[in-house]
Amino acid sequence: MKVLELYSGIGGMHLASNVSGEIITSIDINTVANVVYKHNFPTTNLLNKNIQGLSAQFINKLEVDTILMSPPCQPFTRNGLKKDVKDPRTDSFMHVLGLIPQLNIKNILIENVKGFETSEMREILIKTLNDENYQYQEYILSPHQFGVPNTRHRYYCVAVKEPKTFQFETSLIFNENASFKIGDIIENNVDVKYFLSDDILLKKANILDVCFNESFRSCCFTKAYGRYIEGTGSVYCDKTKNEFDQIYKESKNYDDFNSKLECLKKLNLRYFTPREVLRLMCFPENFNFPDEITDKQRFNLIGNSVNIKVVSELIKLFN
User: Fold this and answer.
1) Letter string b/e over residues 15-33, b meaning 16 or more CB atoms within 10 A of that residue's CB
2) Which residues does the annotation mark as catalytic?
3) Phi first, then psi: what are they for 295, rounded to 5°?
4) d(CA 76, CA 127)
5) What is residue 166's DSSP assignment?
6) How many CA atoms lie within 13 A of 47 on its CB side?
């Protein structure tokens, strides 16, 4: 495959397509994401460009046959305003769909948040694919279906333009038995900055989703992870589940804040580090962030990226 990677972010699609294709050009307007992308893929033709400025002539000159893209998800997120096509952040995706009839593209893969499947934008996508004689399959998939101990439901659409009927062999890609535990992705000697604050321990300990070394699951990590605690991802405890339960139960016996806090601190609760979240997103160990990229930026960029394992399995359907 000769691939055009749109909304390339930190290069999740790039990594997922490594075995099956060659990235000819990648395009994103996010300058921080582009710094990380260039750091990891220095030889790739990366353009810091507004996708709405693309023309069919420009894309056809690239001689690509595949487009991989993860358009902005904010217009469709459960925590957003769900303005759908009325959100200006859908304009670039609408522009790309408008170019499809003028392009020589055989394969298309699109990733977005769960919720996109009920959007008006999805109806426009499907109409475009039908009008241009693409055969397509839509999925709601999560990494836990592929042996990864993380839940992250996302919408995917795989489309192929074939002269004959194309069969999507979906039964070949699933493996719901986790192939590794949370303890397998944990770093040693983690900086104290990742441990939960006293305020969070006292006020939010009862609502945390806690993972242990023996856990085979974790919640979806969003771009707000590390800044907000509710609904942004799991936290880690180096104790066993039984030890955790005993200490937490003990903390309820204290009425004064100081005693309760000292008890809760025994849990050693902390955020997962950016490297640990990258591992759950199936990024390789040689993927790195430049030193100048802050933790806030790292979590933001990871939260906006794709799970490499899931996307790589879907890309195999093109072959």
Assistant:
1) bbbeebbebbbbbbebebb
2) 73
3) -60, -40
4) 19
5) P
6) 17
pTM: 0.94
Query: Mean pLDDT per segment of 10 residues, for the chain of length 319 residues?
Result: 97 91 96 98 97 97 97 70 69 94 97 89 95 94 95 96 69 69 97 97 95 97 94 97 97 94 97 98 98 98 96 90
In angstroms, how far apart are the furthest CA atoms of the chain? 73
Q: Which amino acid is at 286?
A: N
What is the spatial order of strands in the sheet that 270-271 belongs to?
A: 210-211, 235-236, 270-271
DSSP line for 200-261? HHHHHGGG--EE-TT----PPP-TTBTTB-TTS--EE-SS-HHHHHHHHHHHTT--SHHHHH
Tokens of 257: 């804040």
Under 8 Å between Cβ of 264 and 185: no
At a CB cut-off of 8 Å and minimum separation 6, what does 65 contact?
1, 2, 104, 105, 106, 107
